[in-house]
# Entry
Amino acid sequence: QVYLQESGPGLVKPSETLSLTCTVSGGSISSYYWTWIRQSPGKALEWIGYIQYRGSTNYSPSLQSRVTISVDMSKSQFSLRLASVTAADTAIYYCARAGDFYYGLDVWGQGTTVTVSS
Amino acid sequence: QSVLTQPPSVSGAPGQRVTISCTGSSSNIGAGYDVHWYQQVPGTAPKLLIFGHTNRPSGVPDRFSGSTSGTSASLAITGLQAEDEAEYFCQSYDISLSGWKVFGGGTKVTVL
# Structure
């Protein structure tokens, strides 16, 4: 059974960079698409981006200028960095896995709440 | 405003059948891209319920079924149970957004 666990600061100041890590356990980080998704309070899910195990990435057009997703195969982790955050970036951030680009997200982390506030 | 449109809420009595629509366009569902459905119980992460329009992952009861026609998809729940009370999201892909992955706005299912 594969498990995903998000970690990182729960509070980030405006204009700073949000950094989160997702640790993959119980399975290999190879051969999948590793994804970040967020959910603002009371709102729908929003795709942030993904990284393929080989390192290729694809980001949401609306966030592309501020997002970086990276992978550390040796630690079975992948990470999210979102620069120049504002209150609008306050959300629950989830990491998730897809078997291929067009596959559904079959494994999710429990989510971590990030609040942007001074 | 989500690219995929879902009704905000649907409700039904235990044992009844409810359906949730997911309306897209020719640049997403109508273009033939797969539709997936997720169930989110309050306070928990979403769970994959249906993938590739009609397929259920192992462990998902067969009272959940998906279908797609034209530019719309539907999720049906037959024999509604109290534990089905949750938020449901559809998801597909949109070529007008550089091949981006899009979600519906979500539908809250209430079991009366």
About this structure: The interface with chain A takes residues 2, 33-34, 36, 38, 44-48, 50-52, 57, 89, 91, 93, 97-106 of chain B (CB under 8 Å). The first strand of chain B starts at residue 9 and ends at 12. Residues 15 and 79 of chain B are 4 Å apart (CA to CA). The mean pLDDT of chain B is 95.
